[in-house]
Amino acid sequence: MVKRYDTTKQWYAIHTYSGYEEKVAESIRQRADSLDMADKIFQVLVPKEKMIEVKNGKRKVVEKRIFQGYVLVQMKLSEDAWYIVRNTPSVTGFVGSGTEPTPVSDDEMEKIMKRMGRAEPKHKIDFNEGEVVNITDGPFKGFDGTINEIDAQKGKLKVLVNMFGRETPVELDSLQVKRV
Known about the structure:
It is a single chain. By secondary structure, this protein is of the alpha+beta class. Helices cover 19% and strands 42% of the residues. The chain has helices spanning 21-34, 79-86, 106-117, and strands spanning 10-16, 41-45, 48-55, 58-65, 70-75, 91-94, 96-97, 100-101, 122-123, 132-135, 144-151, 156-163, 166-173, 177-179. The strands form four sheets. The chain has a five-stranded antiparallel sheet with strand order 13-12-11-10-14, with no helix packed on it. The longest helix has 14 residues, at 21-34.
Protein backbone atom coordinates (compact mmCIF):
# COMPACT_ATOMS: atom_id res chain seq x y z
CA MET A 1 0.00 0.00 0.00
CA VAL A 2 1.47 3.35 -1.04
CA LYS A 3 0.65 6.30 1.20
CA ARG A 4 0.21 9.74 -0.27
CA TYR A 5 2.29 12.34 1.58
CA ASP A 6 2.07 16.10 1.41
CA THR A 7 5.65 16.94 0.44
CA THR A 8 5.39 20.68 1.00
CA LYS A 9 7.45 22.18 3.82
CA GLN A 10 5.04 22.41 6.77
CA TRP A 11 4.98 22.44 10.57
CA TYR A 12 3.75 19.39 12.46
CA ALA A 13 3.07 18.99 16.17
CA ILE A 14 4.57 15.95 17.85
CA HIS A 15 3.37 14.64 21.18
CA THR A 16 6.10 13.70 23.68
CA TYR A 17 6.36 12.73 27.29
CA SER A 18 6.05 15.90 29.36
CA GLY A 19 9.43 17.16 30.50
CA TYR A 20 11.26 15.49 27.61
CA GLU A 21 10.54 18.19 25.00
CA GLU A 22 14.14 19.50 24.84
CA LYS A 23 15.60 16.00 24.76
CA VAL A 24 13.24 14.97 21.94
CA ALA A 25 13.99 18.13 19.93
CA GLU A 26 17.75 17.52 20.24
CA SER A 27 17.35 13.82 19.30
CA ILE A 28 15.37 14.70 16.17
CA ARG A 29 18.00 17.30 15.17
CA GLN A 30 20.82 14.78 15.68
CA ARG A 31 19.01 12.01 13.82
CA ALA A 32 18.20 14.36 10.92
CA ASP A 33 21.88 15.34 10.69
CA SER A 34 23.33 11.84 11.01
CA LEU A 35 20.87 10.35 8.51
CA ASP A 36 21.32 13.18 6.00
CA MET A 37 17.72 14.39 6.21
CA ALA A 38 18.44 18.15 6.14
CA ASP A 39 16.43 18.36 2.90
CA LYS A 40 13.34 16.91 4.64
CA ILE A 41 13.56 17.92 8.33
CA PHE A 42 14.26 21.65 8.62
CA GLN A 43 13.53 23.03 12.10
CA VAL A 44 12.70 21.51 15.45
CA LEU A 45 11.17 23.82 18.01
CA VAL A 46 10.04 23.69 21.64
CA PRO A 47 7.70 26.71 21.93
CA LYS A 48 8.59 28.82 24.97
CA GLU A 49 7.77 32.29 26.21
CA LYS A 50 9.48 34.54 28.72
CA MET A 51 7.63 35.16 31.99
CA ILE A 52 8.50 37.09 35.10
CA GLU A 53 8.31 34.98 38.21
CA VAL A 54 8.67 36.17 41.77
CA LYS A 55 10.63 33.90 44.10
CA ASN A 56 11.69 34.97 47.59
CA GLY A 57 10.65 38.55 46.81
CA LYS A 58 12.94 38.76 43.76
CA ARG A 59 11.87 39.07 40.13
CA LYS A 60 13.33 36.57 37.74
CA VAL A 61 12.76 36.15 34.00
CA VAL A 62 12.17 32.48 33.19
CA GLU A 63 11.27 30.63 30.01
CA LYS A 64 8.12 28.56 30.28
CA ARG A 65 7.00 25.97 27.73
CA ILE A 66 3.84 27.14 25.97
CA PHE A 67 2.63 23.61 25.23
CA GLN A 68 3.63 20.93 27.74
CA GLY A 69 4.43 17.67 25.99
CA TYR A 70 4.65 19.04 22.44
CA VAL A 71 7.47 19.72 19.99
CA LEU A 72 7.01 21.41 16.61
CA VAL A 73 8.88 20.10 13.56
CA GLN A 74 9.08 21.81 10.20
CA MET A 75 9.47 19.10 7.59
CA LYS A 76 8.45 17.69 4.25
CA LEU A 77 6.36 14.68 5.16
CA SER A 78 7.78 11.55 3.58
CA GLU A 79 7.95 7.91 4.66
CA ASP A 80 11.55 8.19 5.92
CA ALA A 81 11.14 11.62 7.61
CA TRP A 82 7.95 10.42 9.29
CA TYR A 83 9.70 7.22 10.41
CA ILE A 84 12.67 9.10 11.91
CA VAL A 85 10.49 11.48 13.92
CA ARG A 86 7.93 8.87 14.98
CA ASN A 87 10.63 6.48 16.23
CA THR A 88 12.59 9.03 18.25
CA PRO A 89 12.71 7.98 21.92
CA SER A 90 10.01 9.68 24.08
CA VAL A 91 7.86 10.59 21.03
CA THR A 92 4.35 9.23 21.48
CA GLY A 93 3.08 10.28 18.05
CA PHE A 94 2.06 13.01 15.67
CA VAL A 95 -0.94 15.23 16.24
CA GLY A 96 -3.50 14.41 13.57
CA SER A 97 -6.61 12.50 12.75
CA GLY A 98 -6.14 8.76 12.74
CA THR A 99 -2.75 7.73 11.42
CA GLU A 100 -2.27 10.79 9.22
CA PRO A 101 -0.29 13.69 10.74
CA THR A 102 -2.11 17.01 10.33
CA PRO A 103 0.00 20.10 9.62
CA VAL A 104 -0.26 23.07 11.99
CA SER A 105 -1.98 25.95 10.18
CA ASP A 106 0.06 28.99 9.13
CA ASP A 107 -2.18 31.20 11.29
CA GLU A 108 -1.53 29.12 14.35
CA MET A 109 2.23 29.01 13.68
CA GLU A 110 2.26 32.78 13.29
CA LYS A 111 0.54 33.18 16.68
CA ILE A 112 3.00 30.76 18.32
CA MET A 113 6.01 32.52 16.77
CA LYS A 114 4.67 35.92 17.84
CA ARG A 115 4.14 34.65 21.38
CA MET A 116 7.67 33.19 21.46
CA GLY A 117 9.34 36.27 20.03
CA ARG A 118 7.73 38.74 22.37
CA ALA A 119 10.48 40.89 23.86
CA GLU A 120 8.53 41.99 26.92
CA PRO A 121 8.21 39.14 29.40
CA LYS A 122 4.77 38.67 30.89
CA HIS A 123 4.39 39.04 34.64
CA LYS A 124 3.19 35.96 36.40
CA ILE A 125 0.43 37.20 38.67
CA ASP A 126 -1.41 34.47 40.46
CA PHE A 127 -4.09 36.67 41.99
CA ASN A 128 -7.68 37.10 40.83
CA GLU A 129 -9.98 40.10 40.73
CA GLY A 130 -12.18 40.23 43.83
CA GLU A 131 -9.58 38.45 45.96
CA VAL A 132 -8.75 39.95 49.37
CA VAL A 133 -5.03 40.65 49.87
CA ASN A 134 -2.83 42.10 52.58
CA ILE A 135 -0.46 44.93 51.63
CA THR A 136 3.07 44.01 52.76
CA ASP A 137 5.01 47.07 51.57
CA GLY A 138 4.65 50.80 51.03
CA PRO A 139 2.55 53.48 52.76
CA PHE A 140 -0.47 51.15 53.06
CA LYS A 141 1.49 48.31 54.71
CA GLY A 142 -0.74 46.25 57.02
CA PHE A 143 -3.98 47.23 55.26
CA ASP A 144 -6.24 44.63 53.64
CA GLY A 145 -7.87 45.36 50.32
CA THR A 146 -9.80 43.81 47.46
CA ILE A 147 -8.20 43.44 44.03
CA ASN A 148 -10.19 45.54 41.58
CA GLU A 149 -7.99 45.39 38.47
CA ILE A 150 -4.98 43.40 37.24
CA ASP A 151 -2.46 44.70 34.69
CA ALA A 152 -0.40 41.62 33.80
CA GLN A 153 1.70 43.56 31.28
CA LYS A 154 3.06 45.91 33.96
CA GLY A 155 2.75 43.55 36.92
CA LYS A 156 0.47 46.01 38.72
CA LEU A 157 -2.69 45.53 40.76
CA LYS A 158 -5.37 48.08 41.62
CA VAL A 159 -6.47 47.32 45.17
CA LEU A 160 -9.46 48.93 46.90
CA VAL A 161 -8.47 49.82 50.46
CA ASN A 162 -11.14 50.83 53.00
CA MET A 163 -10.06 54.13 54.59
CA PHE A 164 -12.29 56.40 56.68
CA GLY A 165 -15.39 54.49 55.63
CA ARG A 166 -14.80 54.69 51.86
CA GLU A 167 -12.95 52.53 49.39
CA THR A 168 -9.82 54.13 47.91
CA PRO A 169 -8.10 52.61 44.85
CA VAL A 170 -4.37 52.06 45.35
CA GLU A 171 -2.03 50.93 42.56
CA LEU A 172 0.50 48.40 43.82
CA ASP A 173 3.18 46.16 42.40
CA SER A 174 2.28 42.48 42.57
CA LEU A 175 5.26 42.04 44.94
CA GLN A 176 3.65 44.37 47.51
CA VAL A 177 0.72 42.11 48.39
CA LYS A 178 0.11 38.64 49.79
CA ARG A 179 -2.95 36.47 50.17
CA VAL A 180 -4.95 36.81 53.38
